[in-house]
Amino acid sequence: MSKDMNKPTEKAKTESISRPPIGPRRLLILGPGLVWAASSVGVAELVFATRAGAIFGFLLIWVPVVSLFFKYFITELVGRYTIVTGEDVIAAFGRIETRIGPVTLPKGWILWLFWAFFVASVAGMSGIALTVGSALFAIYSGVPYVVWSMIALILVGIILFLGSYRGLEYASRLLMIVIVCFIFYAVLRRFPPLSEMAAGLVPNVPEESLRELIPLLGWSGAGAMGTIWFSLWTKASGRGASAMIDRPSTEEVKAIKSWISINRTDLLVNMILTAVLTVGFIIAGAIILNPLGIVPEGEGLGISLAKIAGEFYGPGAVMIFLVGVVGTLYSTLLADTDGLCRVAGGAVKAQSKTKRPEHFFYMTFLIVYVIFASLFTTVIQAPVLLLQVTAVIDTILLPIVGVMAIHICTKTLPADFRPRRATIIMSYLSVLFFIFFIVLLVMAVVKGVDFSM
């Protein structure tokens, strides 16, 4: 067989790039960004944002706004790389060899960090399961909330094993809309003075606020793992190239650049949407729960959240709101467990030489995940603490993911598709921004700041 016969034909080469929409149709494609935003409406909003408002009033309104602004640049790079290469960033990260002074980190070193997070995130998923359990306990207290939590985890395992939960996803999105309507109606009914909210947009970091600030900072929108999932979602959506093209034609370059532009618009719109929703939850916590001295936590978390609906609608609405809380948080538990097992399975596949399919590793991790998360729910019955610890670890990973994303986009992408200098600068500033708050947290812990709330 000649060498020419091994080369892809021009037709096959062109078909490796999906055709981007043009004109107004560009605005109708809110794919990965919409999934990213919808999946983020869960723990960060219902738990962290509401708690931030309940404890500190309007003081931390600036946190999700500034956090999402900086996350935009890192997430855009992750999506850009996948659009240009047709490859998710897990494989790209696994090929990077890093030198730190005299020390050389071997290829795949970051995958070991993903492993560490995978272990830590078992606690986080237990925390989400306990929040689901607390909401179910508020609906029916005849079953202990820990038992409800274990039932939720077992059902997650069954649903993901069967491999199809699209119908449940759609239902949870509808329930999420119900919650959002409750929240914004409550805000409009008792709209706070603009001056107080404006003051909350000015960054202010009391040391005692770091326990609530860091998790909200890290999980507003998505944390490090959520950023990587955006790459997986972009790939699954079929945007851009299905594989790296050595010498793209003028038409192919134009098509890929168009997809990059669409992805940016998609991401920007949904970052703004997520910021508005998160701020709404903070305000709801500030105007309803803060005056009552109620902080959502433990088995009473669901009941505390339901106060938002009960304040204006009465007992019937409380039940509707709780159902919405269960659906939204359960969807988060389902999507996060699915995503974490995919990242773990992808990491193993990238590191090992086995011919076993990635799905085999996915199923293995799913079984391990459900078993150990169920054990955690019985041993550590503190949902907020479990979520905070996992969110802090995920936040620590964000600067690392940011630096790696900058590297693969500036060093491995063809010149036509590399990010502009302004984007690179803002990406580095994003990395420094999150490092700054991680250092603040470490200093506060060393100083022995009392974080008890």
TrEMBL record:
Main location group: membrane
GO MF entries: cadmium ion transmembrane transporter activity; manganese ion transmembrane transporter activity
Membrane topology: Multi-pass membrane protein
Leader sequence segment: none
InterPro entries reported for this sequence: NRAMP_fam
Residues annotated as transmembrane: 27-48, 54-74, 109-139, 145-163, 170-188, 213-234, 267-292, 312-333, 360-380, 386-410, 422-446
Gene Ontology terms describing biological process: iron ion transmembrane transport
Key word Acyltransferase present: no
Keywords in alphabetical order: Membrane, Transmembrane, Transmembrane helix
Subcellular location: Membrane
GO cellular component terms given for this protein: plasma membrane
Full protein name: Nramp family divalent metal transporter
Species the sequence originates in: Candidatus Zymogenus saltonus
